[in-house]
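FORM 7B: Structural annotation worksheet

SECTION A. Query
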Amino acid sequence: MNYPLTKTISHRGIGLKYGFLILPNMGYYFTNILDITTSSLSLDYINPKNKKRLDFIMKLHKDGLSNKQIVEILKSKGIKRRNKNDFYSVKDVWVCIKKLKKRKFRKEDIKCKLGIWKLCLFSPQEVSSKRREIRTSE
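SECTION B. Predicted structure
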């Protein structure tokens, strides 16, 4: 009989399915599947210079400043857009904040799903052979 081992792992996209068993040498075992899905593994890298600029914009937003006030502060400090050589507009700041909020949500979004527990019984011959396997592997 082929029963699931604790090493049964299969990748599904950016998810992980983990099959496990409990008490395999007692004549019976319980099995289940734990399915973990997350988008945090697919986040793009942000270089330190850009991260510093984006963190500054988000800090100002969290401090309660409006997008227009943030634009004025960025202009007074001489901070320009990343790929352009011009200053931020109100719309640019709004889009930047929106993207940072989506990124934060993706980073924290983790879904775990535990399947249905199953009780499986061995025949007496399988129990003795499994006990021998366990003793020899120890």
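SECTION C. Observations
The longest helix spans residues 90-108. Residues 42-108 form one domain.

SECTION D. Sign-off
Analyst initials: ____
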